From TrEMBL:
InterPro entries: GPCR_Rhodpsn (IPR000276), GPCR_Rhodpsn_7TM (IPR017452). It comes from Rotaria socialis. The keyword Amino-acid biosynthesis does not apply. This is G-protein coupled receptors family 1 profile domain-containing protein. GO terms for cellular component: plasma membrane.
Amino acid sequence: MTSLSDENLIPLLDTILDEMNLYLSLFIFIFGIVGNILNCLVLSQRILRSNPCALYFLSSSIVNLISIVFGLTTRIMASWHLDPTHTNDWICKFRVYIVFTSRSMSIWLIMLATVDRWLLSSRKGSRRNLSNLKIAKLGICTSFVLSNWFYIHMIYCYEANILDAPLKCYGKNTACRLVTDLVYGLLTILIPSIVMMSFSIMIISNIHHLRGRIKR
C-alpha cells in the first residue's frame, strides 16, 4: 500500500511542479517584457539622451529583455517537455551563456549608474566632470567585455542530458559547477551589492553636506 501511494504521489508532484513552473514563468515573462519595453521607451526620449545615468538604465533594460527572452522561453517550453536545451548541447551552452552574461551585465550597469550618481553629487568639480556620456559608453563596453569573459568557461562546462543534476542542461562535473557558482556569487551578486551599498551611502553623505551648505 505504501509503495502504491508513493507511485501515485510522484507523478502528482511532477504535474504540480510543471504547472507552477509554467504559470510563474509566464507571469514573470509578460511583466518583465512589458516593464523593460516601457523603460526603453521612456529612457530613450530625446530629453534623456544626454544623461549618463539614463544611458546606463536604458542599456540595463535592453540586456534584461535579452535575459528574459532567452531564460524564460525555454522554461515555459519545459512545462510541455519541449525544452531543446535538455537534448541539444549547443543550444544548452548558448542559452546559459547568454542568460548568465546578460544577467551580470544588467547588474553591473545598475552598479555603474550608482557610481555615476555619486560622481555627480560630489563636492569636487573634477569628479562631477567624470559624469558624462563618454565615460558611460566606456563603462557599458567594459561591462559587456568582462561579462562575456567571466562566463566563457560555460561554453565548455555545460552539457545537455546530464542525469545526476537538478537540471538536464547543467555543468558536466564538480569543478565546472564550483567555478560557475563562485563567479556568479562573487561577480554578479556580492561585489556589485557591496559597491552599490557603499556608493549609495556616500551619495547620501554628499546630499546631507550639500543641504548643510545651502542652509548656511
